[in-house]
Amino acid sequence: MKKRICAAICLVMCLLLLLQALPLTVAAESTVPDTSAAKAVYFYHVESDSAVHVQNENALLPAASTVKLLSGLIFCEQLAERQNETVVVTAEMIAGVTGYRSKFLKAGTILSVRDLLYSAVCASYNDAYQILAHLVSGSPKDFLAAMSLRARELGLTQSTFNDLIGTADASFTTAAEMATIAKVAYQNELYRTLCAEDEYYVPVLGETVYNRNEMIEATETNKHYNSKCNGMSVGSTTNGGDCIIASASNGKESYICVILGCTEAETVAQNQAYLLANALINWVYKTYTYMDIITPDTVVCTIPVTVADMTTKIDIKSDRTFSYYLPSTANLGEELQFSLRLSQTELEAPVEAGRFVGYVAIIYEGKIIGSVPLYTANGAERSGFVSNLKAIQSLTKNRAFMAGAIFFLVGLAAWITAECLLIRYRHRRWNKYFSHKIDTTQRRK
């Protein structure tokens, strides 16, 4: 018997310890990973069109090889219908190619536009970028002008592009503006296809080119591989450091992660840009979810109602559901708040159900994330007794009525006073007359 009791006590203690540990686990997952190793971060949720985490997102930094994102986007926009065309590589096309990331193509090589697109956007070979720049604009210089024009079309005001592949460290951008380019590139079907492939076979060369993005390539030795990652661009330069623009999706929710300015690592395994991107992607899929912040059943507030029968207030609700992608730990009253914009702060019966009374703005961490209209959830009948009292009360506030009432009372008082004076006067006359009569009679006697 004692053994059973001891076993039961041990079981209860274990359960208590487990329940104590659970909140700690949730709190750890809800904490944003430390991204201080990067100079700038912009982590964006595609479906809700909102930034999940930012850090120095407007700081102007060397763009490094992330300029290839804009170059690749322009290639895909301009050459999507020309993929089957062939290009004869000329000495002019490959003159001055810099950087170790090159396929070292030779003059006279004949490649399809598709081969060059995969070699550039997927494998990130610098000579493929330069050849495509010649094909689109006639020269790298003219292509840089096209890049600047496209940047202005996208609304970029801080970024400058003076190098189509980034090796010269002559281009500058911000994490926020690079995210703007990434959003457009993510919507381009051809670009997404190219940057998502882990490898591509080039028939003319008889070789396979591999995606430079370590998060795409699934190998036993690659520790940066992430099954949710589906492309974008990576790069590293001395001034720009390790940078990455990564996209990820689980089939329902999609993200774009821009990381700039990590200290250049000696080995790929130590690349902080990869480590941070993976940490953010893994964290967000564990932490964030769509929350129904307001539903048709949510009582947003109550409004006082006057002259009503059996009630003094009416519930206010919305006619729709407002959902937003937020951390599952977000609480109303703390990170989430309501801001009311009511057309009336008090209602007078009769009130019908469904009457529009204003809007409520939903605020998350100080920013408005949406708003919904508000309506009365129920009606209120007018009370006859209270209505009569209300009418009397309203009359007492009417200046014309009060002036008339005062005039009447003053007139009544004057009439009463006059009547009283007249009665006194008559009494005096009568008294004087009768007293004279009495005196005359007495004298005759």
Question: Which helices and strands appear, and what pairs or packs with what?
Answer:
Layout: H1 2-30, E1 40-45, E2 50-55, E3 61-62, H2 67-79, E4 86-88, H3 91-94, E5 110-112, H4 113-122, H5 126-137, H6 140-153, E6 172-173, H7 175-187, H8 189-196, E7 199-202, E8 207-210, E9 229-237, E10 241-249, E11 254-262, H9 272-287, E12 288-294, E13 301-306, E14 313-317, E15 322-327, E16 336-342, E17 347-348, E18 356-364, E19 367-376, H10 384-396, H11 399-444
Parallel strand pairs: 13-17
Antiparallel strand pairs: 1-2, 1-11, 3-6, 4-5, 7-8, 9-10, 10-11, 12-15, 13-14, 14-19, 16-18, 18-19
Helix pairs in contact: 2-4, 2-5, 4-5, 4-8, 5-6
Question: Could you write a compact summary of the structure shown?
Answer:
The protein has helices at 2-30, 67-79, 91-94, 113-122, 126-137, 140-153, 175-187, 189-196, 272-287, 384-396, 399-444; strands spanning 40-45, 50-55, 61-62, 86-88, 110-112, 172-173, 199-202, 207-210, 229-237, 241-249, 254-262, 288-294, 301-306, 313-317, 322-327, 336-342, 347-348, 356-364, 367-376. With 445 residues, it is α+β, with helices and mostly antiparallel strands. The N and C termini lie far apart (136 Å).
